[in-house]
Each structure stands twice: as C-alpha cells, then as structure tokens.
C-alpha cells in the first residue's frame, strides 16, 4: 500500500469517527464545554512563540488579551454566563495585561506604555470592585448580623 492510500485511509477513519461522535452528542457537548480553549490556546501559543523568539514581542498584546479572555470565558462557562454582569471589567483588564506584558518584554519601551497599562488595570480593578460591591453588600450585611449575634449571645468568661 502506498503512502497516499495510507493517508487517505486514515483521513476516512477520522471522518467516520468524527461523524459517529457527532451523532452520539459527544462533539456537541465538548464544543459547548471547551470552546473557550479556542481563545485560550492561541493566547498561550503567542506567549510561547514570543519567549521562543519566533515572533516579535508586540504579539504579547493580543496574546495577553486572548489568555485573559479565554480564562474569563472558561469561568463563565463553568459558573454561568450571568456572572458576566459582574465580570465585564475583566475585558478591560485583558487589554491592560497585554500592554503590560509588552512593556515588560522590551526594555526599550516608553514609560507611556506602562502608564497606559497601569491606568487601564486600575480602572478595570476599580470597576470590578464597584460591580462586585453591589452584590457583596448582602454578604457584608450577613457577616455583620452574625458578628452582632455572636457578641450578644457569647458566653462571658467567669471572673473569680
């Protein structure tokens, strides 16, 4: 058997397996569960290629963004997309991470790049804190109630 026939045979077997897995629902489930990896993996590969000196360091900007977005989408995929109403500032943080990685990778970058990355990072974290605070106020109220009940009902130490 020639190499060409061997390659065609392998391709046909792979096509059959993919069709069978698709009909069984395996590919649909994996597609729904693992699609954020299609964003995360290119981000990680961008980092690898930069550190292997195969591409210029400017590739860290989209690489950092894709990595942060991939992690955010994995989080939302696992815990529910309703969490995005609190996590949306992470989208701004992705840009800040990409710019900051680029700044760190090239010693000749201007200080303005660092300032831009830091400003975006601070704004992102501030917005994240504000959006989480609106939901954390209930947690804070619960903690204060428990603390107050503990202070009221705790056993007082005996004094001799």
Helix content: over 70%
What is the mean pLDDT? 85
Biggest sheet statistics = none
* Envelope shape: flat
Instruction: Give a count of the beta strands, DSSP E runs of length 2 or more.
Output: 0
Contiguous helical run count: 7
Radius of gyration: 25 Å
Strand residue content:
under 5%
Give the CA-CA distance, first to last residue: 98 Å
Contiguous low-pLDDT stretches (5 residues minimum) are none
- Determine the structural class based on helices, strands and strand pairing: mainly alpha
Following the backbone from N to C, one meets helices and strands in this order, namely: HHHHHHH
Protein described:
With 160 residues, this protein is mostly helical. It contains seven helices and no strands. The longest helix has 43 residues, at 111-153. The mean pLDDT is 85.
Please give a handful of descriptors for the protein shown:
mainly alpha, 81% helix, flat, 160 residues
Q: How do the helices and strands line up, and which of them pair or pack?
A:
Elements: H1 3-23, H2 26-34, H3 37-51, H4 60-79, H5 84-87, H6 89-105, H7 111-153
Helix pairs in contact: 3-4, 4-6, 6-7
Summarize, please:
The protein is mainly α and 160 residues long. 81% of the residues lie in helices and 0% in strands.
